[in-house]
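User: For documentation purposes, I need each entry recorded in a consistent format: the amino acid sequence on its own, followed directly by the corresponding structure tokens. There are two entries in this batch. Please keep commentary to a minimum and don't merge the entries.

Assistant: Recorded as requested. Entry 1:
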Amino acid sequence: MISRPMSDGNARPRLTSVLQTPFASFDRSRDHHIGVFVGEGIGEEVVPVAVRLLERLGEHFGRRLVLHEGGLIGLPAKIESGSSLSEAVKAQAREVFALGGALFCGPGGDRFVYEVRREFDLYCKFTPIEPFPELRGAGSVRDATVAKADMIAVRENMGGIYQGEWSDERGDDGRVAHHRFHYREADVCRILEVAARLASTRRGSLTIVLKPGGIPSITHLWRDCADPIARRFDVRLNELEIDNAVYQLIADPGQFDVLVSPNMFGDVLADCGALLLASRGLSFSGNFNDSGNGVYQTGHGAARAIAGMGVANPTGQILSLGMMLRESFDWPEADVLLRAAVRQTLADGIVTSDVAAPGQAPVGTAEFGAAVGDRLERLLDQHRP
């Protein structure tokens, strides 16, 4: 058994069990194929930290890891090939998926995240918002408020404004920018079914985030689809407008269990929810389709202002690694161990600058990663696979 000094050390259920085609159990004797895309900005600093932890876990558990070094993504890829998701990277991703693997990504700018979702129909994004008790007082939101937060944001990736068509032309009064987008009933229903099924496994509350006055037709479609689905899964359905939802998320996060929304609203909510975590450096997510494919990433972006300074927080990248091992490789104990190692590091007062309390001396990316690695070693010493 694992020695679990932290209160939330139990394995989390697989979120992908609520997809229309749930992820199958993974045969641990098979090779674990992982496409590693370092990305840009601080990706070169935080991704290697997570990969070192991954390799140590593989060694301890005797799991055969096959790491596929990915090519350029994001802005560097666009500069080189003209696209933030190049044909070469698409081919690499297809190869990994064909082998039953997953993609582990650092930050990729420009259109990368939207294009990879569209290319592989990664319609569902899960963003857990679960603050660490060890970071009480580290963020800008009151501790008593943060303590109530325990939710998962479910975001639809394939429709809406981020996946529309656009143009820029010269009009009589200057330039005119056009953007056209839509939602199909089938796409709305499939994400609502995932969210409702997830809520039915948790506290039975589903909040749908819309904007009736701003996008009436899309709001009416989502609302009309949501009512019968919520009844079918026997979950309470609440509706909030996006502006009020953002306010309520910080004012009273305890009211939320599962939130579901169109892609732009989901983007806003996930970033706002990072305030409850104390830093965007702790945010992470996974994007999924119904074919067993997953792409895992952080929520903080390239953070170019601090790139190369060695001060970035690698926690979000480490937690996205745990999510990948739990969801795509049916390896919940690895996720438990990673989270416990991070929590022990934070409990020992070892923090990066983004979550350092006044008077607390922060450490850099590499030092924080090494500290997590040391605590992971201690946990592994207590664990017999």
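Entry 2:
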Amino acid sequence: MNISVTANGRSYRFTLLDNPTAKDFYARLPLRLTLKDYANTEKIAMLEQKLTKAQAPKGTSAKRGDITYYAPWGNLALFYRDFGYADGLIPLGTFSNETSKAMSEEFVELLSGKDLEVVFDKLP
């Protein structure tokens, strides 16, 4: 499942994982969200409805560029810094193999700035 994340007029390609939580997220697209900083590590946005936790791991760690879901709060999280293991963190996806290193660095730089309006959408 491929998606785009559009911010500041530019689109970035991500590939979602093949798990029930990622599929639930994909089914809700398109979504327009405002990402707000959390702990100088990630940008987060609350979702209107919680995603499924079916077959989800107890937790995971995240790397720069990862899209995750934090089940206890019901929020989406995009990481601009590596983060250690957290209970309740479910991996959703990361940059597509088609996304150049320059584009992925540009997006991570956007995330590390102020609040960011983004649109998540499905790609064919």
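Summary note for entry 2:
Strands lie at 2-7, 10-16, 31-38, 42-46, 59-62, 67-70, 75-79, 83-87, 89-95, 116-122.
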